[in-house]
Structure formats: C-alpha cells, structure tokens
Amino acid sequence: QVQLVESGGGSVQAGGSLRLSCTAFGTSMNYLGWFRQAPGKEREGVAVVDSHSGGTNYADSVKGRFTISQDNAATTLYLQMNSLKPEDTAMYYCAAHSGFLSVGAFLRGDFAYSGQGTQVTVSS
Questions:
Q1: How many helices and strands in the chain, by DSSP H and E?
Q2: Are 115 and 5 in contact (CB under 8 A)?
Q3: Which residues pair with 36 in a beta bridge?
Q4: What is the chain's pLDDT, residue by residue, as a tens digit (124 residues)?
C-alpha cells in the first residue's frame, strides 16, 4: 500500500514551465509515474520511471518537453514540464505500480495507485 501526495500545479502561459512533486509514503513500488486527465478526455500516461533501474518512458506528446526524475530513496518524484502548451491542461496525478507495468498499461495510465491530483492550466 502506498500514499501519494502531489504538489506544484498551477496556471502558466504557453511556453512556460512548471515542476510537479510527489512524495510517496508506504511500501516501495516498482514504478512511479504521472498520468493526466482533461475534462471529457481519456486518461493518458505522461511519464514513468522504473524505481530500480532508473529507466524512463514518456508519452510521445511530451517527449523532449517533460522530464521525470526521482530522488535516491525513490520516495520523491518530480515532473519538470517545459514548453507547456494549452493542450497540456489537465489534472495531473502521481501514480505508482507494484507489479509489472506494460507499455500499454502505462500509456493508458493504468497504475495501481494514484494521488489526489493537481491541476495544471496552460493559457494561450
């Protein structure tokens, strides 16, 4: 079991940057990541890191703009978001998964655990 607490959302103009943070309390997880969901849209996996290997994966829509990282203890997760676009506007959720997470599951945002979410709004 894990509890995830996000912070760092807000409003920014297009082209700006935000950094999201997430602290994980509880059992160590194999994967930590972020997914987002905008009103009327499907959940979308954004970025994920393998807690053991450090390997990362990103949705095509954010590659080159977003960077996921974690601290050495793998208890704090970050998402640095640069060159933000209006289409990045969504509720962003910190997420964790204890078993194997396939690429497909990641892209669907099918993590076992998630936080309460933090709103990111990008204006044009």
A1: 1, 11
A2: yes
A3: 44, 92
A4: 899 999 999 999 999 999 999 999 988 899 999 999 999 999 999 999 998 899 999 999 999 999 999 987 768 999 999 999 999 999 999 999 999 999 999 999 999 999 999 999 999 9
